Amino acid sequence: MNAIVRNVIGGRHSAPGGSERYRAINPARLDDIVADYAFSSAADVEAAVEAARRALRPWRETSAIARGEILTKAGIALRARAKDFGALMSREMGKPLAEAIGEVDYAGKVLQFYGAEAQRPAGETLQSGRPNVHYYTVREPIGVVGAITPWNFPFSIACWKLGPALVSGNTVVWKPAPHHPGCSQAVLDMLVEAGLPEGVVNLVHGGAETGGAIVADARIAGVSFTGSTPVGQAIYRQVSGRLARAQCEMGGKNALYVHAEADLDKAVMLTVEGAFRSAGQKCTATSRVLVDAAIEAAFTEKLLARVAEIRAGDPFDAATFLGPVVDERQFAKVRGHIGAAISAGQRLLAGGAEAPVDNGYFVAPTVFGAVAADAPIAREEIFGPVVALIPVGGLEAAVETVNGTDYGLSATIVTRDLEAAHRFARSVETGVVGVNLPTAGVELHAPFGGWKGSGLGVPEQGLKILDFYTKWRSVAMQFA
Description:
- By secondary structure, the chain is of the alpha/beta class.
- The chain contains 14 helices and 22 strands.
- Strand 18 (410-414), helix 13 (418-427) and strand 19 form a beta-alpha-beta unit.
- Helix 9 (264-276) crosses helix 10 (296-307).
- The longest helix has 21 residues, at 97-117.
- The termini are far apart.
């Protein structure tokens, strides 16, 4: 069924008013039109920012405990409907159903986490060197926040931006990716049903122009963005240039290092989980596998045997491991990277073409072997089910290779050697490090952020992100 897509501005639902249109298609069934709708106009963004400004003072003056209770209720509601919303996600962007249900459940936990944070102290009492002076600090919201979220995690990334922004007392203008309008509406519906006042979150559907209007609006005190590195860097420059705050989570070229002392079966499992879950469409997906030369042949044989077992197909089929990539543009991009690597003479070990599925944007799990560390397939973000095997001559060479790109998001070592694990964790230039764990996978209470071209500003998630959404006030009060 073709969904009706509406903006939500000041609590009112209205059709987006722009001239550009977008057709959202089920990437696993190309004859299934999810929605055909207009993007928002500049006037829509203007109205959304104004609605957020009007709602700011009463929301800020609402007690933090009451704000937290709304988030907690919304989180519980999301988790209660995880199966329904997971099915919606599978249809709108192709994520296999079990993964989609897990994401919705995780998103609900994120809202519950930030709801509970409302009960922590929002400042501290300080000693003063002056007589009879009571000194204390308190966090205050920064104001109206712009949130721009991607298509690969429709629920969880939205919640880990909205949760800390709202519990801190900010109001939000939110532009999600256009692929999953139903998922975005579901997040807002759960917040509204939990008691969120009108205008506190304003949903505007659109593309680059809509996001650009949010970024350019001087009334927005901070912009939180998740997406590609070039766009994130441009946003950071623009927002910082007008002396507002920016927080950008961007791309990655994540490496898993199979150390000579690794459990090879575990290394294979971690490679497959990191590289091919969600069709490789994670900023933390494993895109490079660095293998000590002494075990390269044995590891490669085991990996190819496992890759041959991967089943691609209908996201609603419980046996499906690999779903489609999200849309025609991503399909062409991933195939373009594969084709360029083959043309350049890279050794194709598995995949390299469309998966044998009749109807959808399916790419076969693809493995290239004996890849040089400076080859484009080993340096450029692909965002698809493609992995490059890079032989290395030990730990130091592996660390040098991990650090030899413009990205710095996630890296993992697989080893039984504790000293090697510590040396790796201390030496790689990434914001996230794993030991005997996939490159993909984060926990909601831990800070999540990349280095170099993978992240700018305060890391997301956990408590560190509250520093982005708040500013400090120091109060000194003298008594006679």
